[in-house]
UniProtKB/TrEMBL annotation:
Name of the protein described by the UniProt record: S-type anion channel SLAH2-like
Keywords attached to this entry: Cell membrane, Ion transport, Membrane, Transmembrane, Transmembrane helix, Transport
Gene Ontology terms: cellular component: endomembrane system; plasma membrane
Membrane topology per record: Multi-pass membrane protein
Membrane-crossing residue ranges in chain numbering: 158-180, 200-219, 240-260, 266-283, 304-321, 327-345, 357-376, 388-407, 414-433, 445-471
One annotated GO biological process: intracellular monoatomic ion homeostasis
Organism this protein belongs to: Rhododendron griersonianum
GO MF assignments: voltage-gated monoatomic anion channel activity
Domain of life assignment: Eukaryota
């Protein structure tokens, strides 16, 4: 008797052509019922293997065509476990899914859990962890000795890669709507014949853009709240949480007259409430000290936390309010003075910004530009206080504009959008000043700054669309939110530095004073300045050689 029914099946077979539903023809071997001389053995019925067992049996026998071997598994939910690498950053962190599975009576298998990536519980990181794990002026570059919680070799979900700095796009486009509204309604700019239709088109684009960015980031808040919380506790990223509310203030300031003539003052209180709450937190940290004090976290993006005061004061004064705008103007003026001095001296690290972040210097222009317009609106005229603030902004603008090489050779970054509205603010302030001092110089300067601002925003808009839809690299993996809450273990080779006691200064001296022939290495550790006068350097080299030989022998 053969050992299995398969052996009997192979003893007498014939080829028959089959045609599947797709019209493809393939052959297979089936038993020949007319074969004589062989008594077929009888076997008892057994259960047919199903699922993956059936697929393995078919693959082992080789009797079925190869097309059937690539069929999808019967139950992909069971055969292919879901990737849980990003569950730790989700709002529920996988806990809700586990509860729902238990309610359905489906307990998770132990073996399946062993094959999945273990979720790391995301905790609120202290400020010093961001400084220890990240580097760069905006703390967005991972140090070489650090590791992240998310996989580095694959693209993360889009919402995880969508940063809060995306609201900077709304600031740039919204400020353009204000600029062209001012051009169309200013008496000194009547010769340009600018229509309010341009303001209407730009305002509609800004509204659509703000709605899109708001909706996308709200999805991130809903599904990846842990990632949003990490951005909020980031010492630099927290400043960008002012950007959504400043963008809404820009929309109210730039609303076309054909849509709304008078806006209720209640809207001002609604928009300024979140700005006031954020300022209580940030300004309190600046003053109380610790890891988040101003001298530690000072960055040009801190201007966003100050500009909101002046924009709010400008809008409130435009609505006819008095005390509220003066309050926010005073708060902004006090903290801008401290921030200006801190950033001017570069107290935290005394390191220069990389080329990619050189446009951030234009944020120095934003606060005095908007402050001049806000005070002029509060006082009712472009008086001496407004002119002092405007002249400060104009000087800072010129001091940056003349440094042409300062803005060459850098690559595109999404954070640049937050630095376009200072140029627009300077142009709007110049137009306001030309209304008070109408002459050829002020009018020409208004046209020049308007042209520069429009060209820069247009170029950034085209570049952003190119990187978003053509190059598809506008939103890379956001490393800053994926750092671990613990320091990595020390590298096993770091004992060498502790044993030899060498420092960076010793290595620098070695590289600086070593001979080209490289015959004596230890002698190069002593710079020529440390060799006494009257002593030949060759004899010094010989002494070092003898000392080295002595330690080698002993």
């Amino acid at each position: 008797m053969p050992s299995s029914p398969v052996e009997v099946h192979l003893q007498s077979t014939k080829r028959v052509l089959f045609r599947d539903q797709d019209g493809k023809i393939f052959d297979s071997d089936i038993a020949n019922p007319t074969t004589s001389g062989t008594e077929q053995a009888k076997f008892h019925c057994q259960s047919m293997p199903t699922g993956s067992a059936f697929d393995e049996a078919v693959a082992a026998s080789g009797l079925f065509p190869s097309r059937l071997l690539h069929l999808p598994p019967k139950n992909p939910r069971i055969q292919r476990p879901r990737d849980k690498s990003f569950d730790s950053f989700k709002t529920c962190s996988g806990k809700l899914e586990g509860q729902l599975s238990n309610l359905r009576g489906k307990s998770r298998e132990i073996g399946q859990e062993a094959n999945t990536v273990q979720n790391v519980e995301v905790e609120t990181l202290p400020a010093h962890r961001y400084f220890d794990a990240l580097e760069g002026p905006e703390l967005d570059t991972l140090r070489a000795s650090e590791e992240i919680l998310l996989p580095e070799d694959q693209w993360w979900p889009f919402l995880l890669r969508f940063p809060v700095s995306s609201f900077g796009i709304c600031l740039g486009v919204g400020s353009q709507a204000i600029l062209w509204k001012t051009l169309a309604m200013s008496p000194s700019m009547k010769f340009l014949l600018v229509s309010l239709g341009v303001n209407l088109v730009l305002w509609c684009i800004a509204v659509a853009l703000v709605a899109t960015v708001f909706f996308t980031y709200m999805l991130k808040v809903i599904f990846y709240f842990e990632a949003v919380r990490r951005e909020y506790y980031h010492p630099v990223r927290i400043n960008y949480f002012f950007a959504p509310w400043i963008a809404l203030l820009f929309l109210v300031l730039g609303v076309p007259p054909s849509i709304a003539q008078n806006i209720h003052s209640a809207l001002w209180y609604i928009l300024m409430t979140p700005i006031f709450c954020l300022e209580l937190k940030i300004y309190g940290q600046w003053m109380s000290g610790g890891q988040r004090k101003l001298s530690m976290v000072a960055n040009p993006s801190n201007h966003l936390s100050v500009v909101g005061n002046f924009v709010g004061a400008l809008l409130g004064a435009s609505m006819g309010l008095k005390e509220g705008p003066i309050f926010f103007f005073a708060v902004g003026l006090a903290h801008y003075t401290v921030l200006f001095v801190t950033l001017y001296q570069r107290l935290p690290t005394n390191e220069t910004l990389p080329k990619e972040l050189h446009p951030v210097f234009f944020l120095f222009v934003a606060a005095p530009s908007v402050a001049s317009m806000a005070w002029a609106r509060i006082q009712g005229s472009f008086d001496y206080g407004s002119r002092i603030a405007y002249f400060i902004a104009l000087f800072l603008y010129f001091s940056l504009a003349v440094r042409v090489n300062f803005f060459r050779g850098f690559r595109f970054s999404l954070a640049w959008w937050a630095y376009t509205f200072p140029m627009t603010g300077a142009a709007v302030a110049t137009i306001k000043y030309s209304n008070e001092v109408p002459n050829v110089v002020t009018k020409s300067l208004s046209v020049l700054l308007t042209a520069i601002s429009t060209v820069v925003v247009t170029w950034l808009l085209v570049t952003t669309v190119l990187h978003a839809f053509v190059l598809r690299d506008l939103f890379p993996n956001d490393i800053a939110i994926a750092i671990s809450d613990q320091r990595p273990k020390a590298h096993p080779h770091k004992w060498f530095h502790r044993r030899t006691g060498s420092s960076d200064k010793d290595i620098e001296n070695f590289l600086k004073f070593t001979n080209s022939d490289g015959k004596d290495i230890e002698a190069s550790m002593m710079p020529p300045s440390s060799i006494p006068k009257g002593v030949d350097s060759s004899s010094t080299t010989e002494v070092h050689c003898h000392v080295s030989q002595f330690y080698h022998d002993h």
